[in-house]
């Protein structure tokens, strides 16, 4: 249940503004790939193009190719809704649906797409909550509002919601940046478990986090403000952190800028 | 059906049609539901445009024949005899009454309304702010016919001595010259309209005053400004466009107010002499139309009233457009 | 929503308590010297301003108390008469006491109910278009016309319906024609309040739904409208309250009847505002005046009831963060 993503020569635009330029990379299945880089380097923007979420922002478009195994995500016959069902996403700030209970939140993706069978839903909700290491904390209050949980629990709820639709890939856009250190640790542990099942891409500002959770790391940078972001290099995390090829990577990792 | 495999059990939606635009908001897809719902939303919006255009078109189309037959000058005549063989009608009296009464309403409602808004946002103790705002809003919830009734039975008798006092003190000035009319004078109607539109001025001003950046306010206070100086240097300049547009919206309401004015107005007899006095009577556009609704007997006669209504429509259109432009400009500055 | 999602300032870079910069053009040295010796004139002005603001508020309360006091004082006993809530005005003349208001209450509720039935779907869908779909010139045009519509005086809306319904189509005046005019007045209220509510729904919720592979229209219906539901209901109730008291369209389009009349499509139609208007010429008669105050109080009660219900829904239905 995990697929490889191949990106070739991808440019991302918002209206007339070129946000990301010329990215080519491969994201390996059943592994964690971390995107790091300074603010504004386009790593989140690029992440959103992997499940076509950039298109919900007016003017967002891409040039280039993104393949999920042998399928072109940007083929004209490809439905963006289907793409997003296959490639899930977790956001920076936990965003459970405020009108829904914990149960309903996890079931939302299925229900909104027409699954009504109670047994199926019960099963998937339980598996997903267990998968997100949240089941034991919430199993007695599944009908309470999801917004009543702590920030860290809410984020795990959002992860449970994302994996409930059984995606191939899970994209995480700075999932811990709004959380305290203990909740962050819980999410990082969870990522380690999830990679057995999913292809995971995580954007992070925190280099220690990238070093802790990822197998491969991609460093993004931009030449100057207003210039498009670029992929500087990608490789095994240990190599990127210990022996980067590019000077810019080393400067960033050693804290000289960013 | 797209061929991404291993998709969730939920994937029963119809396939893509591949005809999406190449650019822009593609959260909306070619799905049937999306096309249906998005289409319905678009149609509703277009219906609103159509309705407003139709209002203008119908009023113009039905006013023009009557205007062609009019033997008087439409804008400068005070005669109103749209029936009969030789229709003759002009709107000067309505225009004068409508505009003057609304101006009086603004002169009273804007300063008081702004002061009330400042009171609620800056001066009132915190516990009092919400209830105070609620009370002012309550004034807006009172139906206008009730204002008419109250003005007619309760307020007019009380106002009569006030008018007498103003006439005796300032009667030498043409605007306050006695005319022998009391009760439904232009001045009195202006005051009632002021009370009616006060909540509009207050509600919108309150909103902009509340948005004054705390940094501006604290900046002024940190320099040793008194509260009033802080308001003058930080709150009022920031809120000015909001106050202007609020006043314009209120003016629009005052110009078009119908039933309260209809209750209060003293119609002038035909051929009564022209006077600049605010203590004169006279119909507004709205009250003239409302009072004569029963007389819409033939197209020619109805057309004359519709022509009057058209002028009122244009007046409120202009006033509201100004309000809109002011708001838009402010947005451009703050965003 | 910024265009590039990457440009967020990371939490650790937000300096706590950013230095406050005063807006430009503030006097420097003078202010300082005055500060150490508070100027009496400045202080006096401050006190005067404070008094003026309190006085303005008190002044604004005068008509409110006066109006409500008069309406309740003069109208309440009508509401306690046996026939008020059950009877109509048939065979009751201006100089007869009493009679009922039930025909007018029913008429008013029927008419605004019908108005809402037409105006609410159009209003909500238009707001959905403006917030969720609209871009570019069409959205601007719609938004502009909604503003224009909200400024159209009720008498002009009534004239327009008259010009279409009676003059052009040759149909008779009726409750339905008046309801159509009320629709024009209600649409902008519903559009604007719904729009406000939809804008309050955080974008993150839409993104969350999209990221789950939910089509846009399902997202709008089941997530966005669902989240904004109570606010929308409140806006609709306030819109109904607003048109309930409108009288001008009724004067032009729906002549009053003293009888029970439930048929919106044919003939005269009873409503509370027109019941008040009916006795206008005879306000000097105490019997007529009492009836007018009674009907006015009934109308105010209905309007306030809608306002209160709306606010209660807004209060308890609002999503707690």
From TrEMBL, chain A:
GO terms for molecular function: ATP binding. The keyword Cell inner membrane does not apply. The keyword Ubl conjugation does not apply. Residues 5-247 form the ABC transporter domain. Keywords: ATP-binding, Nucleotide-binding, Translocase, Transport. Gene3D superfamilies: P-loop containing nucleotide triphosphate hydrolases. InterPro entries: AAA+_ATPase (IPR003593), ABC_transporter-like_ATP-bd (IPR003439), ABC_transporter-like_CS (IPR017871), P-loop_NTPase (IPR027417), PstB-like (IPR005670). NCBIfam families: 3a0107s01c2 (TIGR00972). This is Phosphate import ATP-binding protein PstB. It comes from Terrabacter tumescens. The lineage of its organism: Bacteria, Bacillati, Actinomycetota, Actinomycetes, Micrococcales. The gene is pstB.
UniProtKB/TrEMBL annotation, chain B:
Keywords: Cell membrane, Membrane, Phosphate transport, Transmembrane, Transmembrane helix, Transport. It is a multi-pass membrane protein. Signal peptide: none annotated. Pfam families: BPD_transp_1 (PF00528). Residues 1-25 are annotated as: Disordered. Part of the binding-protein-dependent transport system for phosphate; probably responsible for the translocation of the substrate across the membrane. This is Phosphate transport system permease protein. It comes from Terrabacter tumescens. The gene is pstC.
From TrEMBL, chain C:
Gene3D superfamilies: MetI-like (1.10.3720.10). The keyword Hydrolase does not apply. It comes from the Bacteria. Residues 1-38 are annotated as: Disordered. CDD domains: TM_PBP2. Keywords: Cell membrane, Membrane, Phosphate transport, Transmembrane, Transmembrane helix, Transport. It is a multi-pass membrane protein. It is found in: Cell membrane. Residues 105-310 form the ABC transmembrane type-1 domain. InterPro entries: MetI-like (IPR000515), MetI-like_sf (IPR035906), Phosphate_PstA (IPR005672), Phosphate_transprt_permease (IPR051408). Residues 1-11 have a biased composition (Basic and acidic residues). The chain crosses the membrane at residues 47-69, 111-131, 143-165, 171-191, 223-244, 292-314. PANTHER family: PHOSPHATE TRANSPORT SYSTEM PERMEASE PROTEIN PSTA (PTHR42922). Belongs to the binding-protein-dependent transport system permease family. CysTW subfamily. This is Phosphate transport system permease protein PstA. It comes from Terrabacter tumescens.
């Amino acid at each position: 249940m995990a697929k490889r993503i191949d990106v070739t020569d991808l440019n991302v635009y918002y209206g007339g503004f070129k946000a990301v330029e010329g990215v080519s990379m491969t994201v390996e299945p059943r592994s964690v790939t971390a995107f790091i880089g300074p603010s504004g380097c386009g790593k989140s923007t690029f992440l959103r193009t992997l499940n076509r979420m950039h298109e919900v922002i007016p003017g967002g478009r891409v040039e280039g190719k993104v393949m999920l195994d042998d399928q072109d995500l940007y083929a004209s016959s490809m439905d963006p809704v289907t793409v997003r069902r296959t490639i899930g996403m977790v956001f920076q700030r936990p965003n459970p649906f405020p009108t829904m209970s914990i149960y309903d939140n996890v079931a939302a993706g299925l229900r909104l797409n027409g699954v009504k069978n109670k047994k199926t839903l019960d099963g998937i909700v339980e598996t997903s909550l267990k998968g997100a290491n949240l089941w034991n904390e919430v199993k007695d209050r599944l009908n309470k509002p999801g917004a009543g949980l702590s920030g860290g629990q809410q984020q795990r709820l959002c992860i449970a919601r994302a994996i409930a639709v059984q995606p191939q890939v899970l994209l995480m856009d700075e999932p811990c940046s709004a959380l305290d250190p203990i909740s962050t640790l819980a999410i990082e542990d969870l990522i380690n478990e999830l990679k057995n099942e999913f292809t995971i891409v995580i954007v992070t500002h925190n280099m220690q986090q990238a070093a802790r959770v990822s197998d491969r790391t991609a460093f993004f940078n931009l030449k100057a403000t207003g210039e498009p972001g670029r992929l500087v290099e990608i490789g095994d995390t240990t190599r990127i952190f210990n022996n980067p090829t590019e000077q810019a990577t080393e400067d960033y990792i050693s804290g000289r800028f960013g | 059906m797209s061929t991404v495999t291993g998709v969730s059990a939920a994937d029963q939606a119809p396939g893509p049609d591949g005809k999406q635009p190449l650019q822009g908001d593609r959260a909306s897809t070619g799905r049937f539901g999306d096309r249906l719902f998005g289409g319905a939303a678009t149609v509703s919006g277009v219906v609103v445009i159509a309705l407003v255009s139709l209002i203008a078109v119908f009023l113009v189309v039905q006013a023009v024949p009557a205007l062609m037959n009019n033997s008087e000058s439409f804008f400068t005549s005070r005669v109103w005899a749209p029936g009969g063989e030789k229709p003759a009608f002009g709107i000067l009296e309505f225009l004068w009454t409508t505009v003057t009464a609304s101006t009086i309403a603004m002169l009273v409602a804007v300063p008081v309304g702004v002061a009330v808004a400042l009171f609620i946002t800056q001066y009132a103790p915190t516990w009092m702010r919400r209830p105070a705002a609620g009370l002012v809003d309550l004034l807006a919830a009172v139906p206008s016919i009730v204002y008419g009734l109250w003005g007619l039975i309760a307020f007019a008798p009380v106002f009569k001595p006030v008018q007498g006092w103003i006439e005796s003190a300032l009667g030498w000035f043409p605007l306050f010259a006695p005319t022998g009319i009391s009760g439904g004078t232009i001045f009195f109607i202006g005051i009632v309209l002021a009370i009616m539109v006060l909540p509009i001025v207050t509600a919108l001003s309150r909103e902009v005053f509340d948005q004054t950046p705390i940094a501006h306010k604290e900046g002024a206070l940190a320099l040793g400004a008194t509260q009033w100086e802080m308001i003058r240097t930080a709150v009022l300049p920031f809120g000015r466009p909001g106050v202007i547009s609020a006043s314009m919206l209120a003016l629009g309401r005052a110009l078009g107010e119908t039933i309260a004015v209809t209750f209060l107005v003293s119609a002038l007899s035909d051929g009564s002499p022209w006077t600049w006095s605010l203590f004169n009577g006279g119909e507004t556009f709205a009250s003239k139309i409302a009072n004569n609704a029963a007389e819409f007997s033939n197209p020619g006669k109805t057309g004359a009233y519709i022509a009057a209504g058209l002028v009122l429509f244009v007046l409120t259109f202009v006033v509201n457009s100004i309000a809109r432009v002011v708001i838009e400009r402010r947005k451009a500055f703050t965003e | 929503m910024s265009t590039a999602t990457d440009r967020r300032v990371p939490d650790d870079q937000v300096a706590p308590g950013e230095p406050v910069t005063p807006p430009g053009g503030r006097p420097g040295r003078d202010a300082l010297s005055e500060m150490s010796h508070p100027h009496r004139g400045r202080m006096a002005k401050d006190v005067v301003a404070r008094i003026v603001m309190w006085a303005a508020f008190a002044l604004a309360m005068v008509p409110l108390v006066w109006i409500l006091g008069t309406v309740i004082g003069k109208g309440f006993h009508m509401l306690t008469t046996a026939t008020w809530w059950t009877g109509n005005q048939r065979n009751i003349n201006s100089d007869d006491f009493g009679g009922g208001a039930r025909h007018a209450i029913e008429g008013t509720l029927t008419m605004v109910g019908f108005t809402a039935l037409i105006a609410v779907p159009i209003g909500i869908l238009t707001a959905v278009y403006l917030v969720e779909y609209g871009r570019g010139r069409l959205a601007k045009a719609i938004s502009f016309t909604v503003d224009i519509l909200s400024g159209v005086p009720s008498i002009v809306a009534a004239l327009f319906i008259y010009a279409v319904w009676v003059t052009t189509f040759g149909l008779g005046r009726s409750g339905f024609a008046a309801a159509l005019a009320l629709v024009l007045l209600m649409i902008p209220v519903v559009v604007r309040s719904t729009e406000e509510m939809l804008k309050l729904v955080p974008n993150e919720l839409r993104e969350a739904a999209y990221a789950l592979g939910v089509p846009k229209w399902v997202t709008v219906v089941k997530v966005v409208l669902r989240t904004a539901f109570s606010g929308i209901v409140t806006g609709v109730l306030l819109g109904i309250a607003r048109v309930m008291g409108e009288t001008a369209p009724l004067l032009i389009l729906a002549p009053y009847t003293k009888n029970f009349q439930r048929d919106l499509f044919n003939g005269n139609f009873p409503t509370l505002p027109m019941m008040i208007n009916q006795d206008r010429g005879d306000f000097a008669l105490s019997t007529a005046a009492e009836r007018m105050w009674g009907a006015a109080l009934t109308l105010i009660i209905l309007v306030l009831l809608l306002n209160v219900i709306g606010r209660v829904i807004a209060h308890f239905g609002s999503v707690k963060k």
